[in-house]
Amino acid sequence: MLITTKELFQKCYARYAIPAVNVFFMEEIHGLFAAAQQANAPFIVQTTPFARDYANADMLLSMIASAARIYPDTVYAIHMDHGYEEHILDAIEKGGYTSVMIDASHDAFDKNVERTKLVVEKAHEKNISVEAELGVLAGVEDDLTVDPAHSFYTNPQEVEDFVKATDCDSLAIAVGTSHGAYKFSGGQGLQLHILEEIQARLPGFPLVLHGGSNVSPEVVERINAAGGKIKTDAKGVQEDEIRKAIPLGICKINIATDMRLLWTMVNREFFRDKPQEFAPTTPGKTFMDEYKKFILKKFDLFGCAGMA
Ligand code: 13P
Ligand code: G3H
Ligand code: NA
Ligand code: ZN
């Protein structure tokens, strides 16, 4: 059942977090919905503009709608991740989304407010909620790269003014994560004291953690053992950091890199171990099963299993 992103956040605040999973292709959608049905866990399925270009937006949304019929006991929302005005207006016009993210965090505060506010007005008319972002994450996200020198943490002193001025419904913050597989090259980890300060200024307001992938060392090792060249300083968000972030208001945790790594592992091992085979459905099925198992673990970690 499709429900609003807003309702998911109202129920989970400071109790558990909702995984927001980027999808690009069919096998992920199967794995995600199958896991959610089994665990009775709420989730957010999200598409980036890149995913909409790759798969075609209509194809993606149709696959999601189809999955909801195949797995009828699921409770989920549909979110547009990292959208610009053009993508969001398109999504508002064509429908299908319960929330959108306006990615204007690279602009200065006033410009970010102005762009966010405009989108909020249009989205709210259609009952679509808006995630805004304050602070800039480093890393690679689809086709956009931000080098660490141009990233910065969210300034807690700005969050109240930003939320008040924009009327956004949730806030993505930069507290040490980055996009991609190399999050903590300096070993710095999540800046929980910044998160604490943000929550103190916005009590009850849903916060969003981008760059939420764990980057499993085992998966990286298996990729490299099967011919991959992922650098060994790959590192993601640790489980205890996630557990500490949830009571501090993190309601939504975005995950994309972990899926890419898992897909790479499954396919590299397939090509290494079954050189005589050439059926895409063989690694496709392995991926679905592995992805389902991976998502089930996230539901447990985020505390949302049994909450749908
Ligand atoms: P990861 O790179 O950690 O998967 O982050 C994904 C993300 O924030 C998508 O918006
Ligand atoms: O933001 C959306 C991207 O799909 C995230 O990709 O996992 O490379 O950061 P990433
Ligand atoms: Na951003
Ligand atoms: Zn992101």
Automatic annotation (TrEMBL):
Q: Name one GO biological process term.
A: carbohydrate metabolic process
SUPFAM superfamilies for this protein: Aldolase
The Gene Ontology terms for molecular function here are: aldehyde-lyase activity; zinc ion binding
Binding locations of Zn(2+) 2: 103, 133
Q: Which residues bind Zn(2+) 1?
A: 82, 179, 210
Q: Is the keyword Metal-binding in the record? A: yes
List cofactor names only. Answer: Zn(2+)
Q: Tell me the cofactor note.
A: Binds 2 Zn(2+) ions per subunit. One is catalytic and the other provides a structural contribution.
Q: What protein name is recorded for this chain?
A: Class II fructose-bisphosphate aldolase
Q: What lineage, starting at the top, does this entry show?
A: Bacteria, Pseudomonadati, Bacteroidota, Cytophagia, Cytophagales
